[in-house]
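Project outcomes to date are best conveyed with an example. Our students and postdoctoral researchers have been running inverse folding experiments weekly, and each run begins with a structure described purely in tokens. The record below, which covers 429 residues, was selected by the lab manager from last quarter's runs and is presented without edits.
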């Protein structure tokens, strides 16, 4: 793996209060933010404005797959921006064509559309489904309970969590939720208007729950039988995070090694640009030309700059075998988290996840006396305590602490992360 040389700004200022004030006066307060102000990063580490160093096991919620300030990303940005940052999608550019070919190569026969975020990639798939079912009056899309598909109006209608919908009713019609990993429930939920089913291969925001191989294969057969499109939201679990390009490839590799399973659509974003914003969806060949000229568009989708960066991210992952790193070090991590669950059952219920998409499920807050009094969830309190020890993780739900490290995390960094996590767990016994 390439060594990443940190390039911190020449001076470290403690601008914590002034930055907080800029936000409180000028930024819409739609995020519950932690009390941290970051100034720069290098590899798996972030530095706050006081100069404190943090091991970043959250990677911007599964975005910074090559860590921070990776020289190959910097080079791609500089080189491409010297040539061409943007032209309209009224014209062709080579990087977009090459990136589409690389994604098709990794998923299967089909085509790609480029957008700017995960929500927008999913929106494109929702429109594709509506177009597919339009002439038969079919428009309804089934998604899973506890799923997360984005914060746009269609995204919150699609997301199977009430908390994202509250206050924004009425919901956009055409979405219903089914219990995850329950094939019979999917079959029973179908109506004559159903046109698509969308699931995450590994639910992320819902708390790190992988789909079972039987569920994936069963949904494929059900969708074929009923002429329904099967979509996988790979925004968080895709891009080699589980050890394979898409999580369904990882989930099925042992259970169904000879299966020719392919969904009809896959959405991508987050790690695709390693931190540079880009989203995309892939659509399987039979449906690849459904969205014809004039039916779907976005100004910034697939700019030469975004695509050049995404191509570089893929090259680095492939040449440095970071898929293998996520798989092997992920297995080590998972065993260590399981060890914590065995050794400290008063605090940790279990370990969850695949590859570098891991969750530490804590016991209920009420059962951990040192966390019970606070009005904050157990997950947020745990993450806060880890911040004090210089480790970043991401809460999910009330009890799950997510680890979504950069794919190039080093074994000694993983060891440091587990040591700090164990320190917090021990302190809560
Ligand atoms: C599975 C999944 N889908 C969609 C999204 C939305 O992506 P974005 O925030 O880029 O719109 C997310 C974001 O967390 C996600 O985890």
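After processing, the design step wrote out the following sequence:
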């Amino acid at each position: 793996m390439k060594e990443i040389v940190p390039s911190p700004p020449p001076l470290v200022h403690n601008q914590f209060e002034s930055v907080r004030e800029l936000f409180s006066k000028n930024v819409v307060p739609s995020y519950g933010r932690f009390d941290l102000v970051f100034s720069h990063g290098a590899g798996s580490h972030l530095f706050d404005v006081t100069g404190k160093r943090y091991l970043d096991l959250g990677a911007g919620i599964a975005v910074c797959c090559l860590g921070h300030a990776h020289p190959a990303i910097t080079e791609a940005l500089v080189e491409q921006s010297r040539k061409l940052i943007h032209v309209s999608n009224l014209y062709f550019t080579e990087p977009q064509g090459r990136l589409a070919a690389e994604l098709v190569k990794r998923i299967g026969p089909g085509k790609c559309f480029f957008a700017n975020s995960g929500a927008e990639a999913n929106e494109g798939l929702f429109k594709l489904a509506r177009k597919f079912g339009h002439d038969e009056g079919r428009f309804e899309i089934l998604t899973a309970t506890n799923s997360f598909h984005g914060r746009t109006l269609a995204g919150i209608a699609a997301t199977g969590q009430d908390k994202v919908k509250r206050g924004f009713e009425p919901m956009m019609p055409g979405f219903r939720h089914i219990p995850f990993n329950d094939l019979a429930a999917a079959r029973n939920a179908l109506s004559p208007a159903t046109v698509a089913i969308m699931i995450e291969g590994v639910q992320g925001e819902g708390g790190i729950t992988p789909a079972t191989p039987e569920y994936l294969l069963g949904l494929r057969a059900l969708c074929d039988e009923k002429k329904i499109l099967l979509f996988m939201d790979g925004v968080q679990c895709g891009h080699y995070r589980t050890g394979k390009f898409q999580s369904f490839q990882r989930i099925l590799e042992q259970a169904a090694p000879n299966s020719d399973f392919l969904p009809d659509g896959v959405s991508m974003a987050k790690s695709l640009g390693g931190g540079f914003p880009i989203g995309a969806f892939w659509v399987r060949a039979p449906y690849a030309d459904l969205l014809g000229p004039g039916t779907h568009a976005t100004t910034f989708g697939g700019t030469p700059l975004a695509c050049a960066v995404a191509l570089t991210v893929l090259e680095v992952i492939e040449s440095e075998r970071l898929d293998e790193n996520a798989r092997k070090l992920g297995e080590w991590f998972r065993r260590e988290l399981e060890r914590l669950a065995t050794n400290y059952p008063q605090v940790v219920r279990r370990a969850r996840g695949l590859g570098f998409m891991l969750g530490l499920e804590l016991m209920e807050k009420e059962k951990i006396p040192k966390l019970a009094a606070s009005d904050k969830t157990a997950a947020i309190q745990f993450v806060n305590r880890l911040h004090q020890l210089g480790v970043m993780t991401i809460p999910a739900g009330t009890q799950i602490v997510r680890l979504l490290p950069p794919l190039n995390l080093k074994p000694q960094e993983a060891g440091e992360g587990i040591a700090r996590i164990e320190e917090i767990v021990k302190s809560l016994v």
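Residues 61, 117-119, 122, 148-150, 200, 204-205, 233, 235-236, 269 surround pyridoxal-5'-phosphate (CB under 6 Å). The chain has a mean pLDDT of 96. The training component of this project remains on track.
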